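Weekly structure sync, notes
Attendees: PL (lead), two postdocs, one rotation student
Agenda item 3: pending single-chain targets
PL asked that the sequence for the first pending target be pasted directly into the notes so everyone works from the same version. It is reproduced below exactly as submitted, 472 residues in total.
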Amino acid sequence: MGLVRTALFNWAFARHHQGTLVFRIEDTDAARDSEESYNQLLDSMRWLGFDWDEGPEVGGPHAPYRQSQRMDLYKDVAAKLLDAGHAYHCYCSQEELDTRREAARAAGKPSGYDGHCRDLSAEQVSEYVAQGRTPIVRFRMPDETITFTDLVRGELTFTPENVPDYGIVRANGAPLYTLVNPVDDALMEITHVLRGEDLLSSTPRQIALYKALIELGVAKGIPQFGHLPYVMGEGNKKLSKRDPQASLNLYRERGFLPEGLLNYLSLLGWSLSADKDIFSTDELVAAFDIADVNPNPARFDLKKCEAINADHIRMLDVKDFTERCAPWLKAPFAPWAPEDFDETKWQAIAPHAQTRLKVLSEITDNVDFLFLPEPVFDEPSWTKAMKEGSDALLRTAREKLESADWTSPESLKEAVLAAGETHGLKLGKAQAPVRVAVTGRTVGLPLFESLEVLGKDTTLARIDAALEKLAA
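Predicted structure, written out during the meeting:
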């Protein structure tokens, strides 16, 4: 979800300024990335409603847009950095690095790389090679303070001792994120980068690399950066990819609307106005200003996310609503047989269901009483509703309903109200046994509209079945 929020802000920023949005796939980790994950990513972006001007399926002047297909470019740039002295080979083993870092920490000094291999002699290099060591490539950080203006956080300064030399190519020759990301930004002429706060510490290193790339003729300039606040989960901890509520697929499966989800995510660090939480993506794009993003962490609140999604469900026109519910009205979600689904009943009940849902998946339980041969009784609901005297009430309600006008929900309401009055009960308590007898639950869609759609014969038959259950 944090990544979706980041993508959303980039998309809104680009669209607000009529800019070019570049979608780039960072898939250089062969152990983690696959064709399946690539296709899932594209599917998720499309489902959310994002479009892009350059990237997969669209193309563009800087193709290819998958980093796994750009390895020769990174290899070439790494060689140029080495030749120009902006990078060097580092032969330090992991054990040696850990030992020196621990010693630096014990001495109260910065524990980053100490520059051990910065200026090796030819003899030292030969000795390391003879030992069978394979070097990584490190970028040589300049001995200068780096200051830049963050689009979210204002002016930031990093001193040399806090930004040590860093690796850009692994010992096996595979380029690291610290190289491929800036190189792609440079070659694709990226002007603005909005990304997570967790990458802030890498920005001064990348700025130094951009300067070297400009010197080499690879880059034309340095992008402007905006580092977005963390999205926090339970216990005010950063929302981890492993947290159940972090997975986008979970929200798709539950039936969140893309527009509802994006509306809520946009509020994690930004707001349209102090008194307006519900808005469309068009309104978001029109109003989005990166300068208005709050740098403080934002907490993900599932209940508020659901409430905003419910508002967006109610904003749909009924035809759109019925179409979006379709996946949850058939296997594997629906408990009824396909031949028992009645399109006419569904179309009749849909406007009433639309006002009650937080997520689309709730539609299945809300309308199952219409399509199942008999209601599925929720036993706690049965016990709660069927108190002493419920059988007498149900018999009276059945009698009143049998003579009611079944083309009018108001007439059905009057019938149950009259039954309640006969037994000294107000409507709320009188309708509870009827609702459970007919739908199986104590809560659900508007009762009298539901009875009208279900029909007279089925309703009376279910009341009879409930009376038999009570007698037993």
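Discussion points:
- Residues 456-471 form the longest helix (16 residues).
- The longest strand covers residues 146-150.
Action: rotation student to compare against the earlier draft before next sync.
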